[in-house]
Amino acid sequence: MSIENVTINLGPGRDIVIETGKLALLAGGSVTVRQGETVVLVAACSAKPRPGLDFFPLQVDYRERFCASGMFPGGYFKREGRPTEKEILTSRMTDRPLRPLFPKGYIEDVQIMAMLLSADGENEADVLAIFGASAALMVSDLPFLGPIGALRVGRIDGSFVANPTHSEMEKSDLDLVYAGVAGKTIMIEGCANEISDEVLRDAFLFADAVVTRQIEAQRQMAARVNKPKKPYVVHLPSEDVLRAVEEYCRGKLDAACSIVDKKQRQEALNSVSAQMEEALKPRFCPTPEAKAPDFGPAFEIVTQQTVRRLILDTGKRMDGRSVDQIRPISCEVGILPRTHGSALFTRGETQALVTTTLGAEGDAQEFDVITGGKGKKPFYLHYNFPNFSVGETGRISGPGRREIGHGALAERSVAGMVPKDFPYTVRCVSDILASNGSSSMASVCGASLSLMDAGVPIARAVSGISVGLVTGEKDRKVLMVDIIGAEDHYGDMDFKVSGTRTGITGFQLDLKIPGLDIDTMYKAMQMNRGARLQILDIMEASMPQARPEMSPHAPKIFSLKINPERIGALIGPGGKVIRGITDSTGAQIDVNDDGTVNIFAVNGPAMEAAKRQVMEVTAEPEIGQVYRGVVKSVKEFGAFIEIIPGHEGLLHISEMADYRVNKVEDICKLGDQVTVKIIDIDERGRVRLSRKAALAEVK
Hints:
- The chain has 16 helices and 30 strands.
- The protein folds into five domains: 4-225, GHMP Kinase, N-terminal domain (Ribosomal Protein S5, domain 2), CATH 3.30.230; 239-314, Orthogonal Bundle (Arc Repressor Mutant, subunit A), CATH 1.10.10; 329-542, GHMP Kinase, N-terminal domain (Ribosomal Protein S5, domain 2), CATH 3.30.230; 556-618, K Homology domain, type 1 (Ribosomal Protein S8, Chain: A, domain 1, 2-Layer Sandwich); 626-698, CATH 2.40.50.140.
- The longest helix is centred in the first third of the chain and has 29 residues, at 197-225.
- It is α+β, with helices and mostly antiparallel strands.
- The protein is elongated, with a radius of gyration of 33 Å.
């Protein structure tokens, strides 16, 4: 196999190079993608379907290697372990635009693996993995209906930039990860600094122009490789079974699909399904020995057709709402007595309980940075989705990929509203107590309320909502706001947007169709904005602004500035001094390189004790001040006294008493404590002390 490569120009001095035929030659298809000195290898393979599967088992995995940036893994074993949050989020972003572009009924095992081989610390690898996955599938033997293009879009000083570096992203007010086909969007993910709908739409148009070039480059490479596609079998219900199910269900599903209550609707659908199987079995099983076909997939198809027909033809949704109507909303704050902040946000049958915890700077989330960017988060949000939230049982374990993804979406939607100079670390936890659509957006609303309940001075309240879509023949489209779980399941789109009254802060798009035109995306954003403003009205009626005072259970903070040269004295050898202060007071102390010291304590006495000790250790000698010092050395002419840690002064024998002193040892010995007053500090910083002046002042 010959080595083939194609270069795509994204802008001045900004090229992407895709290459195949050199690495991972036994895979079904493989490519490397390079921008700058960042290189990602992507390989795709397939296997025969596993028995009993009735869905497409696509598995996408992105992994980073520390050696890619010349680093060693931490820990005892010195080896990469379970996937990081970034690796999980990149895997999800790679999966979502690819899944709609496989043939309907294709259920072979497909595995796509992306591996970071080299990282230059400036060019981010996540979008290269998404783009590389499409390119690997195009040169593979898999039946992929792509290609897609993928890139990151930033906006710096009003101008869009394709695949900006980490340094450039520091100046950007937009972080958009975009994947699509020519003229259509398939997946978006990202955040922004309160931008308008029009700016985000224009970012889509900018990205689409780059995607068009990326698609053409992949087609060229695929044509050169010209690898034949493997034959495969489509697994769909037979025409006879599907036709029989359609005939039986005609007129029976409309009422069941229109029941407002989620549980009652599912029970009604289960009843129709059971009756349908009982009625059709004799038709397909003429003898007792005959095996009945699986009617489930056909019933699912007919149910989907019914739901979509009702929405397209009558505008009737499953719970009876109009397409632009949001469900009833209630907001409660301060419902948990001991948390620093809490809020319960309920929208229809979706309920999120969000708590806020305030901590010291040392409580910030830190992580290894291999590809560049920030390695510390002072604000983070965790999302939990227990089985009982959907009335089910199941395995109880740590957060899965879905929970990581939903938490990240809610986190970046709210993070920009927390002041950058806020001295606390902030952690929000969203526990979904009931779920029937858009629980991640409920988490956004709940987090905003919980932060204000905790007294965090967020710039503006943030709300979020999802917009769905149902498409039909002759390009018919119906957009729906605030979709429930079944509308997400049977519909074509889940487009989540969050923001303030000023503009958009976070967004995520999932599609089940192979792309949506940008004009319809813009209409969905406008519908979303109207719903968000309604939600903000309700939220602000409950909590118009942040509380002026924090919870009495929240840690208190005191900040002071010290001479940066005194940082070493405060920390002490091996951290001895600062550890002694924290152990004796129970306070937590964070020290910044510029000399800013933040003291966190849970009560007043602990705060005062810590403040006093820190100020004693870091104080600068002042003329006229009286100190209680320790004798560090004794000479014939006097004694050297340590008045504060790291600062000594000379107590001359003539300044020891108001009478003649014959020997220094008559007044003080090594290790004694002596009360002294600073009477002079010369231009070289040398300190002159007087015991007799201190005693006179005390009298």
